[in-house]
Amino acid sequence: MLSKQFFFFQWVALRQLNANRSKQGLSFMTIISVAGVAVGVTILIVVLSVMGGFEQDLKTKMLNGQPHMEILASNEALGFSLLDVPVDSFQSKLPDSIGMAPYTQADVVAKHGKHLAAISLIGVDSREDNNMWGFARVLSDDDLATIDEEHSPLLSFDNDESKFPGILLGEGVAGQLGADIGDEVTVLSPQAASGAVIFSGGTISRTYVVSGLFSTRMFDYDSRWAVVRLDEGRKFMTDYDPSLDLEKFVTGIGISLNNPLDVSEAKRQLALGPNLAVKTWEDSNAALLFALLLEKYTMGAILMLIVLVAAFSISGTMMMTVFHKKTQVCLLRSLGMNQSDIARLFILQGFLIGVIGIIFGLLFGLGICFGIEQFRFIDVPSSLLSIRNLPVRYLPLEYSFICLFALILTIVGALYPAVIASRQNPSTGLRYS
Amino acid sequence: MSQSPYMVQLDRITKVYQIESQKVEALRSVSLNVRKGAMVAITGRSGSGKSTMLHVTGTLDTPTTGKVILGGVDVSTYSDAVSSRFRNRKIGFVFQMNNLLPEFSAVENVMMPGLIAGGGKSAVPLRAKDLLKAVGLGQRLNHRQAELSGGEQQRVAIARALLMEPAILLADEPTGNLDLKSSEVVEELLLDLCRKNGVTMLLVTHDNELAQRLPSQVVMAEGNIAEFGGAW
Ligand SMILES: Nc1ncnc2c1ncn2[C@@H]1O[C@H](COP(=O)(O)OP(=O)(O)O)[C@@H](O)[C@H]1O
Ligand SMILES: [Mg+2]
Fold first, then answer.
1. Which end of chain A is more exposed for a tag (fewer CB within 10 A), N or C?
2. Which residues contact A228 (CB under 8 A, 6 or more apart)?
3. What is the DSSP code string of B179-194?
4. CA B51 centroid distance within chain
């Protein structure tokens, strides 16, 4: 019964909706209802797409800067020996890996003349493929290899044999220090234990010559990072003593993945021993990622209120129709339509209003997104983003959800008028005189 | 339908409308038996309960008390879905005005009961056209309400009322809004087609002359039948 007559009801509903055009008041209300749904859907699509764009930009930053995965000691600061935990031991476990290299990392202070900067000192082996690090992606192999060169001090005495190794600075760090290529920069470790000072004689402060600058175009990295040779970096690890050099101690092993979005799967595959831990890019950015997610859902829910208001307006419009078309509803009843047939007619009209509004909303929303993408409406400061115009990301899944929800809301809006219309006593609309 | 000789039986029908605290007794124990194929004119002053009786008979409204038996079956106990289906198949209506759905053409209006019934629809458009020809509107198939005169609208309504080959036709002052000339055309068609199709007809009218042309008459007063006339 339902399927057989489905098109008949659509036909009647569409005809009646269309016929409203001739009656000015009703047609205006219907247009407002459709427009309300369309505006709600448009705004939802645009806002979520731009938010998605920012999110993607941020994720790109996260994915292009730091290693997608880091294998660390359970006590991060202590590090581990590559003799105990060779890099090769992970290769077979991680088929998705496209790069693996050891590194050291220490939070230190850099000094150049009167200028100080708090930096993150990363030690890498320039002979390895360090593609998991943002700086290695923007530097050529030769540029990276300059950290291995030994430089004579600017001021030296005849019998002074000391040489300074190279250091690469992020552009932001160089700016803070006022340092340029060829300048000497002193690195001080505030965390070096007092014991280490005694044993190692001078780890607390070492001098490097700036051998190059890099710009990853990501502000937080360029303003924080400095890169030195792996064994130089090791000297700033907690509890350093010369035996660590023999044992090849490192802070961790950085890994880059072919599919960084599947990092949790890769993490599961690793199944590390008791003294090791894995930190993924999602772990390091958990708070931010959660904030983004929360923002997305909150924003979606708030903007859905526009569609909710539109659904109210549909409800109101249809209530007017119910009274306006009372005679015709009763006439259809006299011709054999039952209560649920009448309800179905009105729900179908709400459905049609919803679908038309949603189609317009989709068209406008996608059009605006496309416009934002193509034309630069707003200049975004380059320090904030790695790109200059508003980012847009198309989110088919979210769009489907928006459309579905808008449709449900409009149908729910039509429900009450439909029930009222179907409950009318057919006799009352068919009396004259 | 059963073997009962009566098509319409009203058994002590009362209808009370409650408006706030005030009760209006529109029908006070009306009983009436109408044989199959009979044509009954119902007259009476305005407010005497003619329309109410017609609507209750046609299952558009339910009686407060009493039974409505159509073709031997008590329809007053039917659910909405069943009585709607019954209405669709067995009862044709012609009202005083606004009979047509303005969004639909004449032929679509005539087809409507057939479309509501669903099922084998292929015969419906053909029969609708034939009926419109029979009421002299073969040339106005695609005209809408706004493009048809009052008399023409009533003729479309008659064609529609007969589409499903109903057993009962209920007409509530079908000529009440027409000028004399169109009235005559509509009356003629209505009587002629009902007679030809053997339809049992109840016709409410103000027009005594018309009432006298029907074989049986009922006069209503204050919610009850005051007088029977003609053959029963
Ligand atoms: N829906 C209603 N609510 C209250 N009173 C009604 C309603 N419909 C009809 N009536 C009353 O019932 C009485 C009979 O009305 P009706 O059957 O329309 O009379 P007629 O068709 O003979 O003019 C009238 O007094 C009318 O006011
Ligand atoms: Mg009346």
1. N
2. A121, A122, A123, A147, A165, A166, A167, A168, A187, A208
3. -HHHHHHHHHHHHHHH
4. 10
Span B30-55, pLDDT tens digits: 999 999 999 999 999 999 999 999 99
In terms of pLDDT, which residue wins out, A193 or B193? B193
Tell me the backbone φ, ψ of residue A26, rounded to 5 degrees.
Answer: -65, -40
pTM for this predicted structure: 0.78
- All structural domains of chain A with their residue ranges: 2-61+289-431, 75-273
Contact assessment for residue B193 and residue B165, using Cβ atoms and an 8 Å cutoff: no
CA gyration radius, chain B? 17
Residue ranges of chain A whose pLDDT lies below 70: 1-6, 18-26, 154-161, 190-203, 376-389, 433
The pLDDT of residue B19 is: 87
* Per-residue H/E/C for A104-168: EEEEEEEEECCEEEEEEEEEECCCCCCCCCHHHHHCCHHHHHHHHCEECCCCCCCCCCCCEEEEE
| Percentage of chain B exceeding pLDDT 70 | 98
Domain CATH for B14: 3.40.50.300
CB atoms within 10 A of CB A36: 24
Burial class (CB within 10 angstroms; exposed 0-12, middle 13-18, buried 19+) of A195? exposed
3-state SS assignment for residue A280:
strand
**B1, part of any domain:** no
Number of compact structural domains in chain B = 1
B176 touching chain A per CB within 8 A: yes
Residue B193 placed within a domain? yes
Which residue in B22, B89, B29, B96 sits closest to B56, CA to CA?
B29
pLDDT digit string (tens) for A63-119? 888 899 999 998 887 889 888 888 888 888 888 889 999 999 999 999 999 999 999
Contact at CB, A334 and B87, closer than 8 angstroms: yes
User: What is the structure's pLDDT at A192?
Assistant: 54
**Residue B28 lies in domain:** 6-230
Nearest-neighbour CA in chain B from A49: distance (Å): 42
**3-class SS at A28?**
helix
Q: Is residue B205 part of a domain?
A: yes
DSSP label at A86? -
Scan for tokens 């039948």, then name that residue: B225
Ligand 1 pocket test target in B15, B16, B19, B24 with most atoms within 8 Å of CB: B24
Rounded to whole angstroms, the Cα distance separating A103 from A249 reads: 9
> If you take atom 1 of ligand 1, which residue's CA is the nearest one?
A428
* SS3 category, A182: coil
